[in-house]
Amino acid sequence: KEFAVYRERERETSRKLKIDCVFEGLRKEFAVYRERIVKERMDEREGSDIEAEGLMYERKELQSNGSSFFSDREMDGTIREPLLKFRKNNTSQIAIVGANVCPIESLDYEIVENDLFKQDWRSEKKVEIFQYVVLKWTFALLIGLSTGLVGFFNNIAVENISGFKLLLTSNLMLKDRYYQAFAAYVGCNMVLAIAAAALCAYIAPAAAGSGIPEVKAYLNGVDAYSILAPSTLFVKIFGSILGVSAGFVVGKEGPMVHTGACIASLLGQGGSRKYRLTWKWLRYFKNDRDRRDLITCGAAAGVAAAFRSPVGGVLFALEEAASWWRSALLWRTFFTTAVVAVVLRSLIEFCRSEKCGLFGQGGLIMFDVNSAEPTYSIPDLIAVILLGIIGGIFGSLYNYLVDKVLRTYSIINERGPTFKILLVIAISFLTSCCAFGLPWLANCTPCPIDLEHECPTIGRSGNYKNFQCQAGHYNDLSSLFLNTNDDAIRNLLSSGNENEFHLSTLFIFFAAIYCLGIITYGIAIPSGLFIPVILAGASYGRLLGTFLGYMSNLDAGLFALLGAASFLGGTMRMTVSLCVILLELTNNLLMLPLVMLVLLVSKTVADTFNKGVYDQIVKMKGFPFMEAHAEPYMTQLVARDVVSGPLITFSGVEKVGNIIHALKITRHNGFPVIDEPPFSDAPELCGLVLRAHLLVLLKGKKFTKQRVLTGTEILRRFHAGDFAKPGLGKGLKLADLDIMDEEMDMYVDLHPITNTSPSTVLEMMSLAKAAVLFRQLGLRHLCVVPKTPGRPPIVGILTRHDFMPEHILGLYPHIKPPRK
């Protein structure tokens, strides 16, 4: 009876939403009632010390904060659930995208099964289904073509710009004009670096970095406007060209993944009403599920375009990028990467006729220059295992230092575009000084006898750079520093000359690349991690191979390849995709057992210290990433233990003013709809309605003065396409509505747009099980319903933020998560 009286009073006040005051007696009555409920729950869970301790902590919090509960809820709106706990989710709703702080929200991967969707599904014809299938494959073809062309353009531009800069420096060095050569080299690098930084700082800050963490977060269900925006694509392409050409220790492979995802996102926008680029067929892709599949294809195409590795691109998307996978997507992704491979092969054949400037036969990294036969014995396997252990240690240390540097750079980047550019200038000058100054420490080496190629190489890329040496000699350190990154990797992986590089040269180059790679990643330019990691790994791999010398049957170039594999495994923690990418790069299938072994060892060693570099960056940037597995401490809690408020519900036929006010005072994207008498015998959960759908419905103004069902009229007035998700930044906003004062007291029927089959779990379900369910189904909202009848039909709603450790451990600080 006490509860019924309280419920009646609460229902009367909640109709208005704008609560002017709350009676003192009602506040005290609620506090007493809540205290009794907590006591009963403690008695029920007497056997669980952890849960009893958490409830005791909750009781203390209630006693200290209970008096301010209603004043807080006056600002937030109504409560229709008296059992909802006094808690809010204070996890961050923003994240760092590139070098920019952006608001984030979740994506709606779940199918909204409302009356409009069912009507559209029933009226769908076989021709429309055929159109949808054809369009999916057409988009896959276009993504492959576009990404292949962009990848080829990037390589041509980098090879020609870098080639011009290096030729200018080399010609001045041949004339013994060393100071002018240094000034020309530093000046060219500085101009290119400033141009790349200006693009990132002023046009698209989200284009900074590799972009793989952002794509990974998007495919996990986290969206921010700038992740895949057209401006991000533009800056990603040209900023990457300028940054790599500027001599930074960065690669263009990571940005290519982001570029492929941006291209796929633009194709999947469903056209543009602004530019009248609309087509009836394009409406099929105005949803997050199909866009997710397209962006997965784009990410795979980016890897295929960067490494000329179609199978490796598919496996990269499967192992690292995508959070949801199915067989149909595997086939479509493979088709996309195959198109990329065909495009690149055709364009490379065209460039063999020297019509691409300085591009020549190089550019797109293909290390099929290693002709050594991999014959190995037991001592060689021990050396390979040692290489894997070294790679795991160096890789975990690399990840740790990158994390610290990124946190430091974020403080500088927050000061504005000017400080971003100044940081880029400082790193550019340091890199140029190292690349030009360190080769002076190396001794000149006589050219080997009976070489097929010219030594020293003049006017082109090659293994033997003259630098300051006399005729017939070369500087082995300048052959690594004063070259493009792709040519430097080719030189390290070359075979046939064990003594081509001195041990001191390899050590200096490894130390410089290791340190420069750490301090370069995080500045405001598009930058990838693959190439710096491959360079550093190949350096210490060849160093070990040269040191072992004749004690090993493996060539020094093969050791360089295994060193690159070990460092990649130690930093990125991928196995299958990296193995295939390296084998496709080197065109040497005989290395498969050794590459597999070194990857497994390096990943195992590195996993004992920290997570992979992309996982660390995702967490550091603040993305609420849902892992594939639940944390162990989640098994100690149930779903209702982390439900946060305020919970605002709507009736099946709701007053317009209530909806407008709820949209104003909250940022919620989903609201439970509860049917009450006279539309049902007892309060029952009708479903879930989305914020975007409410805005479209209110924009149509199908209101009534009486509280009656008008679903048939709404179905005639609207179509499913009216509620489809628009493109980037084109959705309705609350400010776009023009609701008159007299319309605020009218009613609107929410049943036609309510998802009548939302995903629900019982309040007593383990939080770990709920987290796995949430992630595997790709949900945005998970409704928590009561276990026993006679209570309100919904306890609360779980979103991805409710599964974050910051929220859970903030509510229950007595739970100590295990140290990783």
UniProtKB/TrEMBL annotation:
One of its GO terms (molecular function) is voltage-gated chloride channel activity. It is found in: Membrane. Residues 753-817 form the CBS domain. The lineage of its organism: Eukaryota, Viridiplantae, Streptophyta, Embryophyta, Tracheophyta. It holds the Pfam family CBS. It is a multi-pass membrane protein. SUPFAM superfamilies: CBS-domain pair, Clc chloride channel. It comes from Davidia involucrata (Dove tree). PROSITE patterns: CBS. The keyword Heme does not apply. It comes from the Eukaryota. Belongs to the chloride channel (TC 2.A.49) family. The chain crosses the membrane at residues 132-158, 178-204, 225-250, 294-317, 329-348, 381-401, 421-442, 501-523, 589-606. GO terms for cellular component: chloride channel complex; plant-type vacuole membrane. This is Chloride channel protein. Keywords: CBS domain, Chloride, Chloride channel, Ion channel, Ion transport, Membrane, Repeat, Transmembrane, Transmembrane helix, Transport, Voltage-gated channel.
